[in-house]
């Protein structure tokens, strides 16, 4: 069990239903409200440990005959959970902050990118509110950059960071790995920084909205940015 305190309802339900963590119910609620993952979807799960979102994503694909894939990436080596997952799920151990986009794209079907990107990445919490929020925003920005590949919009106030990002993850190709019409979910810690990420996301997607899932612990500042229907570059 992660976190402090006695087991709560969502922890007990996760145990009962075979999910490896209570966080499964966060994605279950997102999926119920927004229906981002459909049969045949290609899903990228950033920060996939311990694997609960892999389980929900695979379930959301429906029966094996429907096709689709789920790829999880995490700094830790994550074993695919035996329950609620099938052969469509795979994981790799890598640092998303340093992983070139072309290598991530190569993991997608026909190397054409993913239709859904889920970022449940969270920094190592220091207890210093401003520091933790800044680190969370940095991870969120990286997820957005990886998805849309429009680096000039991602780091508007830090040219050195933009150039580094261009060199390390874009090369000559500045396209992201999220397909046009695709969806992006980013976990963030509430702060002024998240407003900037929201403002950057709005013109890129048809719709961007906030959600605090019911399974979020009362003491947590976690909030999710739900970005739906990525616009083609020609429409920006």
From TrEMBL:
- Which ranges carry the Ribosomal RNA methyltransferase FtsJ domain? 19-229
UniProt cross-references to Gene3D superfamilies, sorted A to Z: Vaccinia Virus protein VP39
SUPFAM superfamilies (alphabetical): S-adenosyl-L-methionine-dependent methyltransferases (SSF53335)
Tell me the superkingdom of the source.
Answer: Eukaryota
GO MF: rRNA (uridine-2'-O-)-methyltransferase activity
- Is Methyltransferase one of the keywords UniProt gives this record? yes
Q: Which Pfam families match?
A: FtsJ (PF01728)
For this UniProt record, give its keywords in alphabetical order, as a comma-separated list.
Methyltransferase, rRNA processing, S-adenosyl-L-methionine, Transferase
Q: Kindly indicate where the leader peptide sits in this chain.
A: none
Kindly give the InterPro entries that the UniProt entry links to this protein: RNA_methyltr_RlmE, RNA_MeTrfase_FtsJ_dom, rRNA-MeTfrase_E, SAM-dependent_MTases_sf
Q: Ribonucleoprotein among the record's keywords?
A: no
The annotated active site, in chain numbering, is 187
Q: Hey, which family's this protein in?
A: Belongs to the class I-like SAM-binding methyltransferase superfamily. RNA methyltransferase RlmE family.
Q: What is this protein called?
A: rRNA methyltransferase 2, mitochondrial
- Source organism: Quillaja saponaria
